[in-house]
Fold this protein.
Amino acid sequence: MTVANKFGVLAEPRFRLLWIGRTTSALGDAMMPVTLAFAVLSAGGSATDIGLVIAATMVARTVLLLIGGALADRLPRRLLVGGSDLFLCAVQAIVGVLFLTGHRSVTILLGTAICYGAASAVTRPAIAGIVPQTVDRAKLQQANGLMELSRGAAQVMGPALAGVAVTTASVGWVYLLDAVTFLVSAITLVFLPLPSTRRTRGTRILKEVAAGWSEVARRPWYWVTLCGHAISNVGSSAFYVLGPVVIARQAGGAANWGMVSASMAVGALLGAATAMRYRPRRPLVAAHLGLLLSVLQLAALTGPFPTVVIMGSALVSAAGVAFANSLWTTAIQRLIPNELLSRVSSYDWLISFTVAPLGYAAVGPLSEAVGATWTLEIATAFAVAGVATVLLVPRVRQLRQTGKGDLHGWPDLDDRATDDTPATKDSACTTTASPESPR
């Protein structure tokens, strides 16, 4: 058995470096929600302060996301992500030292949250453009599946590690550990060679943001799909708001909700693992049929059903979402020219960040007005309508994929050259070559 067959996409040196860095960083990120709560409380804060700190991260990320996407298409992505990692390494190290020396305040944590949100607004669109530069197209879906699998594993391990670290050491040491994870990620990017790519130059950043919207607007299949995702996200939010309420009425209460959450983590791992091995002929159709599985967890709450049924439905739903995420990400990386990818992807992230909180805010008042069962049925209708909206788009149904990962079924795809570099003839930007490999 060759090395490539044994280790799959990890046999690719560039992707292996990126995967090590991002997986390490993801583990650090997964430790922070638990750590943050105890940090706020140890600084004399309350539950309201915890919410404010979390909201500060989301607001900063949302406000800066489109600018982050434009920067990632304008500057070398490797250096941009590496710089963000080093910045957050310094921020987390400073907070860790301050907490260890007794200088604790909610104000410090609010400032840290803003820094976190601003950095993630840059790194998320940039990473979307880096992954396809590290593997050939035949392994791109496997690469995205592995990235999704690693994030899921980090979400399982991170909170447990944080709980142990906070209990046995202190909050400050966890912040220092998170700083180390950012440093590891930055070091891997130093040694990550990337091929040359076309970059926008000579235009103002806001014009590049507007150009990104123009690219989204002239691809109806893309923006209609984003609208469908937004509708589905609104529906899915009901599970996370009403799930604990429904479970609390049963024997076991909070412990049972913990089991449901654990089953979702297992489901996400299974879905990502499936995406690594299964290459559907109609990738966008398969992705959104996977997304449709999210209705199972909503339906399970309308019961009454035993906790084990809710756990099973949550597992299958989470698997479907993880599978859908991997296929959707791969398709976008293949269909959007690389020099536009970060800006176009930033609109996808923006809709996800903006719409989900609206759903969370609406579910509670609606359930008080019409009852939990009616609210869940309305949420199910939203989830189904969102997927149906996407599947009604002809190009979504027409897109085909070969066993080697080649896409066809659209006239412009069938006419496009089939080399590893995405075609750039539909770019509306003035671009010049800019090498990203290390000096």
